[in-house]
Design goal:
Layout (H helix, E strand, L loop, with lengths): L10 E6 L4 E7 L2 E7 L3 H13 L4 E5 L5 H8 L4 E5 L1 H6 L9 H10 L11 H33 L4 H4 L6 H11 L5 H5 L10 H7 L6 H38 L8
Parallel strand pairs: 1-4, 4-5
Antiparallel strand pairs: 1-2, 2-3
Helix pairs in contact: 1-2, 5-10
Length: about 260
């Protein structure tokens, strides 16, 4: 690597995997490498080992999501840097027989590890919640599409007339179908609001062959959609709760007397 100023004399590089963390400590007293598991007790042991070596700065590669539990345990005890794996490998001067953790530690020692932005824990948890909510909403959308395909299989063309199959009118019609009420005239009269302007088309759309097979699948899909709606509401409530301190500390406007 050549002669480069030592920026952090007590530092460590971590090569994080799913089931193991290979850690290399470099201090003025020398270099030591050790492997730890990724269970919480193992990561606490890693933290203690780093502290025993008086480590102040720790760098790890931002590979997948495996760095997150390690970061959670070490956060607050050391200055942490999350490095881009491609950058680490692109820095010239590495010997082929050097371990990843040793190379990361050596780069960190000389201040050559540019850190990726890592939000604080509350922000990371909030991001995880919002991403989970998005995944639930997407799964609900897919399940509604599956529901519509099941209806099509029974010659029920409700989605061709109703804008929202899961709206108030659509849901009432579906519940009636599940109750074995297949008369198009009876089903059509359940239309509400703007859907009532499409009664002739709706009557035709509901004149199908809705049998036991479709009834079974629609009941299962509606139950799944209801479950997803409940889960989305619970996650949204948790997000709102997490957002409350942020709103109170960063009010959007101040009232005037």
């Amino acid at each position: 690597m050549g002669v480069v100023e030592v920026r952090y004399p007590y530092c460590a590089g971590l090569d994080v995997h799913k089931k193991s963390v290979v850690a290399c400590v470099i201090t003025p007293e020398g270099e030591e490498t050790r492997t730890f598991g990724t269970m919480t007790k193992d990561l606490i042991a890693l933290s203690d080992w780093l502290s025993q070596h008086q480590v102040t700065h720790v760098a790890m590669e931002s590979t997948g999501v495996y760095w997150k539990p390690v970061w959670n345990i070490l956060e607050g005890n050391f200055e942490l840097l999350l490095a881009n794996a491609r950058h680490i490998k692109a820095v010239p001067g590495r010997k082929t027989d050097v371990r990843d953790c040793e190379w990361i530690a050596e780069l960190l020692r000389h201040g050559l590890v540019p850190s990726s932005f890592v939000p604080d824990r509350p922000q990371r948890e909030l991001r995880e919640l919002t991403r989970y909510r998005v995944s639930l909403v997407q799964e609900k959308s897919r399940e509604v599409n599956r529901l519509q395909h099941t209806l099509e299989g029974g010659n029920i063309k409700l989605s061709s007339v109703a804008t929202d199959v899961m709206g108030k009118s659509g849901r009432e019609i579906l519940e009636a179908l599940l109750a074995d009420k297949a008369d198009p005239g009876v089903l059509t009269e359940m239309a509400k609001g703007r859907l009532r302007t499409k009664l002739p088309a709706l009557r035709e759309a509901l004149a199908g062959r809705f049998g036991p097979h479709q009834r079974f699948l629609v009941a299962r899909r509606l139950a799944h959609i209801d479950y997803l709606d409940e889960a989305i509401a619970e996650v949204m409530a948790e997000i709102e709760e997490r957002m409350r301190p942020l709103r109170s500390s960063h009010p959007g406007h101040h009232s005037r007397d």
